[in-house]
């Protein structure tokens, strides 16, 4: 079973879904550490409550992105994790960091990639009049939010939705699909090869598992 290191910046509802999935026996993995770049991230409290080792690496204490990522890499390596799970970790990672963990880095992004890379995805979907929105889990490559998609989940956008309404609808799906993907990874069923996501030796389509 895989050792997971989860990286967060905030609330940690995805982290909680993973903790719950491990407890319920739906995710046969061990969360060996939770790292936050923000000292007041509520996810750190969730991890502590679950008896998981936590570490805060406050990015404001580092000279630049490269210096921060070197320290982050060192911390993750000391945990000997099989997967680095970005769960609301709101920082861009250097190519050096990403390359060091190629094939082991996963992210959840609140849009139907390749749409709406970056920030404010829910508001952008509303502003564009989209009838459908969603969330993607993908392998991380040096291209921001550009790595191969593993799975997507779609939700409707209703006429009077606010960004918060939509976020809530999307996050319900997040809590479902991220533990599922991690269970595949932990079982050795999921890999990245030549910039493609592979599940059970089959190349997944552009929009991921269906
Ligand atoms: C989630 O909605 C996740 O998709 C998003 O941040 C939220 C974190 O929630 N991630 C990004 O926007 C990445 N660029 P959580 O802290 O409750 O898991």
TrEMBL record:
The keyword Transferase applies. InterPro entries: Formyl_transf_N (IPR002376), Formyl_transf_N_sf (IPR036477), GART (IPR004607). Its EC number is 2.1.2.2. GO terms for cellular component: cytosol. Catalyzes the transfer of a formyl group from 10-formyltetrahydrofolate to 5-phospho-ribosyl-glycinamide (GAR), producing 5-phospho-ribosyl-N-formylglycinamide (FGAR) and tetrahydrofolate. Residues 3-182 form the Formyl transferase N-terminal domain. Belongs to the GART family. N(1)-(5-phospho-beta-D-ribosyl)glycinamide binds at residues 12-14. Pathway: Purine metabolism; IMP biosynthesis via de novo pathway; N(2)-formyl-N(1)-(5-phospho-D-ribosyl)glycinamide from N(1)-(5-phospho-D-ribosyl)glycinamide (10-formyl THF route): step 1/1. Keywords: Purine biosynthesis, Transferase. NCBIfam families: PurN (TIGR00639). The active site is at residue 109. The gene is purN. It comes from Alteromonas australica. The lineage of its organism: Bacteria, Pseudomonadati, Pseudomonadota, Gammaproteobacteria, Alteromonadales. It catalyses: N(1)-(5-phospho-beta-D-ribosyl)glycinamide + (6R)-10-formyltetrahydrofolate = N(2)-formyl-N(1)-(5-phospho-beta-D-ribosyl)glycinamide + (6S)-5,6,7,8-tetrahydrofolate + H(+). The record marks 145 as: Raises pKa of active site His. This is Phosphoribosylglycinamide formyltransferase. GO terms for molecular function: phosphoribosylglycinamide formyltransferase activity. (6R)-10-formyltetrahydrofolate binds at residues 65, 90-93, 107. It comes from the Bacteria. GO terms for biological process: 'de novo' IMP biosynthetic process. Gene3D superfamilies: Formyl transferase, N-terminal domain.
């Amino acid at each position: 079973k895989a050792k997971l290191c989860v990286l967060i910046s905030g609330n940690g509802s995805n982290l909680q879904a993973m903790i719950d999935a491990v407890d319920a026996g739906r995710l046969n993995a061990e969360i060996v550490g939770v790292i936050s770049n923000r000292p007041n991230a509520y996810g750190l409290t969730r991890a502590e409550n679950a008896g998981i080792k936590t570490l805060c690496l406050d990015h404001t204490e580092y000279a630049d992105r490269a210096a921060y990522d070197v320290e982050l890499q060192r911390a993750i390596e000391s945990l000997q994790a099989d997967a680095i799970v970005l769960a609301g970790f709101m920082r861009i990672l250097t190519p050096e960091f990403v390359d060091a963990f190629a094939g082991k880095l996963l992210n959840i992004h609140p849009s139907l990639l390749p749409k709406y890379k970056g920030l404010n995805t829910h508001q952008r979907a509303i502003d564009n009049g989209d009838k459908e929105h969603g969330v993607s889990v993908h392998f991380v490559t040096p291209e921001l939010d550009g790595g191969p998609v593993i799975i997507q989940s779609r939700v409707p956008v209703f006429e009077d939705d606010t960004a918060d309404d939509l976020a809530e609808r999307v996050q319900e799906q997040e809590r479902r699909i991220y533990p599922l993907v991690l269970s595949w990874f932990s079982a050795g069923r999921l890999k990245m090869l030549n910039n493609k996501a592979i599940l059970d030796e089959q190349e997944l389509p552009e929009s991921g598992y269906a």
